[in-house]
Design brief:
With 519 residues, the protein is an alpha+beta fold. It is built from 19 helices and 11 strands. Pfam families: DUF3485, Exosortase_EpsH.
Length: 519
Amino acid sequence: MQLDARILSGRLIDWQAVPAPWRAALLRLGAAWLVLIVLFGGDWLAMLRQWWDISTYNHILLIPAIIGWLALQRRRELAQIAPQTWWPGLLLLGGAAFLWLLGALSGLDLARQAGAVAMLGACVPLLLGVRATWGLLFPLCYMALLIPVGEELVPLLQTVTAKITIALTHFSGIPARIDGVFIDTPAGLFQVAEACSGVKFLIAMIAFGVLTAHVCFVSAVRRAVLLAVCLVVPILANGARAWGTIFAAQYVGVEVAGGIDHIIYGWVFFAVVLAIVIAAAWPFFDRRPDAAMIDAEAINTNPLLTRLAAASIPPVAGLCAIALVVVTARGWAMAAQDLAAPMPDRIDLPAVAGWQRVDYTPRIWWEPRAEGADHRLLGRYAGPDGMVVDVFLALYAGQGEGREAGGFGQGALMPNSAWAWQSAATSVDGGRGERLMGGTDVERVAVTWYRTGDLTTASNARLKLAAMADHLLLRARPTMMLILSAEDRRGAPAQRAIDRFRKDSGPLDMWMDRMARLR
C-alpha cells in the first residue's frame, strides 16, 4: 500500500503546486482575515468562550475544521478558476460591518457576532471573486453555524418536551398532572428544566444534518427529508427520554432515576439516536464517494457569472476598501458607546389610588436582574380584597454592553435562584407575561414592559431596534424596564391582582415616566 508523500510529510497541500494567482489571492485573504479577527477580537473571544463553556455550543469547536475540510475538498476544481478582486463584494462587506455596528450600538451580542463572522465570509467574494465564491458557496454558508445561537429556543422546547412527556406518561398508565413545565406524579414533582429542553442536541443535529445532506446527497428531496428528520427526531427523542426518567422513578425513586438520566443523557441516549439516524440514512446516500463537489468548467462558462465577473478592481483597491469599511464601523461605534441621557438624582414609587405601600416581604426572595441600570426600585403595594403587587423599575441612561434592559439573563427570572420558569402567562396591557415557580409551592406571575422615548413595548426586538436607531442618530434617551408581579394567594390570584393594579395606576406610559421623573 502506498501513501501520498504529502500525508507522510504532514501536509495536505503542496503550497508550491498552488497556482501563483491563487497563492497571492490566498495571502491577501489570510491577511484580511487576520486583521479582522484581531480588530474584532472581543467578539471572537466571546464566541470562543461560549463554544468552550456552554454545552449547547460545544459542537461548534469542530466547525472551523469542517469548513476547512469542505474547502480542501474543492481545491482541485478551484485551481481551474481564476481568482479576482470583485468590487460588489464590498457591498456584502459593508452590510456585514453594518450588522456588527447595529449589534454594537444596541448591545445585541448575536448581531455583533453574526457581523464578525459575516465580515470574514464577505472577504471571499471581494478578494477571490464571484466564480470562486460560487465554488465555495456551501462552506461560506456553513460559517453561519459558528454563531452561538439557539438558547432563545429553550422556553419553547421546555414546553414542547413537557407536553410530549405528559402524553407518554398518561399513555403508560401513570397518573400525572402538568402545570407549565412541572409534572406532578405519585413518585414526586418533576421539572423540565432548561438543561432538559434538548436544545443542545437539536442544534448539534441540525449542524450534522446540514453537513450530511450536502456531502452525501444530490437529490433535493432526500436532503429535505434528512433535514426534517434531524429537526423532529431530537425533539421527540428528548420527550421520550424525559418520560423514561419519570417512568423509572415510579419504581426506583426520583434520585436514582435522575442519576441514571444524567449518565444516559450525556453519554448514551443521544449517541444511540444519532447512530440510528445515520444508519437509516445510509442506504439512501446518492452521491458517489469520488464525485467532485463542484463543476469548475460549468462555473467558468456560466453566462451570468461571466457578466458578474466583469466588475473587477485592482487587489490594492480591495484591501483599501476593507480598511475604510472597518474604520468607519468601529469609529461610529466608539462615538455612540458613550452616549448617556441625563438622569434624575433619585426616583420614587408613586401613590396609586386604592393601594398603599407596604413592606416587601415575599415568601421566597424575588428581585429582578437589571445589570448596568443607573436606578432601581423594588417595592410592594397592598390593595383591596387582599391583593398584593410587587413593582420593579430599572432606569438606564443608555443601552449598550453591560447595560441591556432586554439582555440575556435580565428581567423577572433570576438565574441561579430559587425561581424557575414555568410557562407563559396572560398578557396585561401588551406586557410580556411569565409564570414562575419558587420552590415547590410558590407561584408568581410577572409582566414586563420596556419604555424608551415615546415607545412602550414588551418586545425585546422592538427595544433593540429603538436603541439601534438612537445610536445611529447619536441620540441619547433614557430606557426603562418595568415589571409588575404578584404571588398567587388564596382568594387573590396573581393575574387578577396585576390587572386591577394596572387599571388603578392609570395610563402606563405616563405612570412609568412619573416614576422615573421624566414628566
